[in-house]
Amino acid sequence: MNPASTPILAYHMHADLDKILIDRERIARRVAELADEISHDLRDITARDELVIVSVLTGSIIFLADLIRRLPQKLRIELVGVESYPGRATESRGPKITRSLAGNIEGRHVLIVDDILDSGGTMRLIRGELAKRRPKSVRACVLLRKERPSAMETPCDYVGFDIPDVFVVGYGLDYNNYYRTLPDIGTLKEDAL
Ligand code: 5GP
Ligand code: MG
């Protein structure tokens, strides 16, 4: 990594990291590939019908912002809130909807965008909620997927990276609501937890 291009904020947080798993350059390359794949796959659909991106707060905000700016089609964004790791938890407590979908998705094509597939509970919950609103189709995209059966078995159309089953922070992912602004993805030192 080039220290001259690293913001000072990131330096502070890097001191709490045990290891960088995926650095910002790799993330950027993969996000661009995902965007190309998605816009290629959806080109016929979006020529006729409307695409709505449903993104899951808060972990997906950075990924969402980078991904959608590489999608050339005209589309809408909807946000849903799901919380599964309240505060200092590093294991899912079971997902709960904290902000429900406000817009209409009936008869529209939906792409769910989330940060990470872990137990798959969040994805199942969102898909269930969306299905009640009769979308025309639902696809899903996550930046990260943990190499554990529950994640690998959860249907998902687009996956950025498969990572080991460890707790990660950065690029939107938090611990106790910190580290979301770190541009790289990594694991925390024991004493930062
Ligand atoms: P799932 O419902 O699939 O178990 O977990 C999905 C949600 O839990 C993700 O959207 C994310 O917010 C949170 N999560 C899962 N694994 C991690 C992790 O390793 N680090 C962080 N910061 N959040 C995680
Ligand atoms: Mg989340």
Which secondary structure elements does this structure contain, and how are they paired or packed?
Elements: H1 8-14, E1 17-22, H2 24-41, H3 43-48, E2 51-57, H4 61-68, E3 75-83, E4 96-99, E5 109-117, H5 121-131, E6 137-146, H6 149-152, E7 158-163, E8 168-169, E9 185-188
Parallel strand pairs: 2-3, 2-5, 5-6, 6-7
Antiparallel strand pairs: 1-9, 3-4, 8-9
Helix pairs in contact: 2-4
Structural notes for this entry:
- α2 (24-41) crosses α4.
- The strands form two sheets. The protein has a six-stranded mixed β-sheet with strand order 4-3-2-5-6-7. Strands 1-9-8 form a three-stranded antiparallel β-sheet, covered by helices on one side.
- It has helices at 8-14, 24-41, 43-48, 61-68, 121-131, 149-152; strands spanning 17-22, 51-57, 75-83, 96-99, 109-117, 137-146, 158-163, 168-169, 185-188.
- β5 (109-117), α5 and β6 (137-146) form a beta-alpha-beta unit.
- The chain has 193 residues and is α/β, with parallel strands linked by helices.
- It is globular.
- It has six helices and nine strands.
- The mean pLDDT is 92.
- The protein binds guanosine-5'-monophosphate (5GP) and magnesium ion.
- Magnesium ion binds next to β5.
